[in-house]
Amino acid sequence: MTFEKPRRRVKRVYIHCSASDHAHHDDVSVMDQWHCKRGWSEVGYHFFIKKDGELQRGRPIEKTPAAQANYNSGTIAICLHGLEKPKFTDAQFETLRELCAEIDEAYDGKVTFHGHCEVAAKSCPVFDYREVLDLDAKGRLGAGSQNSVSAVTAPDPDIMLRVGADGWRVKALQKQLTALGYHVGQVDGDYGRRTRAAVLAFQADNDLDTDGIAGPKTLAALDAAQKREVGEERQAAGLLSLADEGSRIADASVKQASAGGMVAAGGALGVVSLVGETMSSVREAVSPFSGLLAEFGPLLAIAALAIGGFIVWQAVRAGRARVEDHRTGKTS
Fold first, then answer.
1. Domain holding 24: CATH number?
2. Which pairs count as long-range contacts for 185-190, CB under 8 Å and 24+ apart, including other chains?
3. What is the rounded CA–CA span in Å between residue 66 and residue 77?
4. 134, 212: one domain
5. Reduced to 3 states, what is the DSSP secondary structure of residue 113?
6. Domain of 101?
7. Which residues pair with 78 in a beta bridge?
């Protein structure tokens, strides 16, 4: 084999597995069909390694892969056919070593090699890619014997993420949920109440056991899921309708905007009074300001206009954010 270095910048190489051991899936054309069904233009991997060690080319190397959500830029993606660890073959591992060695040489040892599990809450590529490639702690090729790798970073086929968990796996889970339209709050790697609520919502939407635990089945479903669809009624919701339905934020925004409008109207009345005739209907509506305007004059009028305008602006911002959160499904 001869690796052809692409013109685009590459910093990392990611190793994947196909999540199937069926013989009729052992071809890059099958991966292409699967990925096209997800809405991608073509297979997401650049290379596919069959059980017999044959190396197949997938997506053109000049193109960015579609293999590691949020981590595709500047990468090369390699997939080995297989799901169960004992069923990967020595022929596959030998081809993987040869390919990675060529990539490493092409980049003068400046690229690093990683498993998909390092940036996603899953066990892919299942087998111990660090041992196969003799990686060091930073993912450099052929240096593992000089640097011990913590077992904490090794792939875990029995991942169970729940309340109290933290770290990069949780952060990757939060990013996946957010990308699919499930609100987790801050993406901070801390499996708290909001992350659990997002997992519960995803499980309910996908006919999974609703236990709030991101185990193997939930993680696999996340990987295959499409973005969450939001109902027409929710998409059409407005600030007033949300306030009527009991949203405290929406109600506060409406009241704040009304109060700010009254203050601004009072200030506007004062400014108009100073330069010419006034509108009696407006003066009657804001009569509580009349005495103050008479006593303090133009400064108070201008200040009231500015303060009222600021209050309205803040209320509008908060109201728009609340409506957007509701329409996109971030809040109930």
1. 3.40.80.10
2. 190/166
3. 8
4. no
5. strand
6. 12-153
7. 15, 47
Residue 165 CB partners (closer than 8 Å, separation 6+): 191
Torsion sign (Cα): 50, 55, 60, 63: positive
- Give the long-range contacts of residues 218-225, CB within 8 A, separation 24 or more: 219/121, 219/122, 219/159, 219/173, 220/19, 220/122, 222/121, 222/173, 222/176, 222/177, 222/180, 223/120, 223/122, 223/176, 224/38, 225/180
pLDDT tens digit sequence for 94-137:
999 999 999 998 999 899 999 999 988 888 999 999 999 988 88
Structure tokens at 143: 């240096």
DSSP line for 236-254: T--HHHHHHTT-HHHHHHH
How far is the C-alpha of 68 from the C-alpha of 118, rounded, in Å?
10
Nearest CA to 76 among 56, 91, 62, 95?
A: 62
Whole-angstrom distance, CA of residue 164 vs CA of residue 191: 6
Token representation of residue 20: 């199937």
pTM, whole model, 2 decimals? 0.49
Q: Cβ neighbours of residue 142 under 8 Å, at least 6 residues apart? A: 101, 104, 133, 134
281 pLDDT tier (thresholds 50, 70, 90): very low
Q: 73-88: per-residue pLDDT in tens?
A: 999 999 999 999 999 9
Quote the tokens at residue 325.
């959160």
CA-based max dimension of the chain: 93
Residues forming the active site: 16, 45, 116, 122, 124
Dist. CA 158–CA 146, nearest whole Å: 28
Rounded mean pLDDT, 148-169: 61
Q: Where are the beta strands (DSSP E) in the chain?
A: 12-17, 47-49, 55-57, 75-80, 112-115
In a domain, 2, yes or no: no
Collapsing DSSP to helix, strand or coil, 132 comes out as: helix
With H, G, I as helix, E, B as strand and everything else as coil, classify residue 14. Answer: strand
Q: How many domains does the chain have?
A: 3
Answer yes or no: do 53 and 128 share one domain: yes
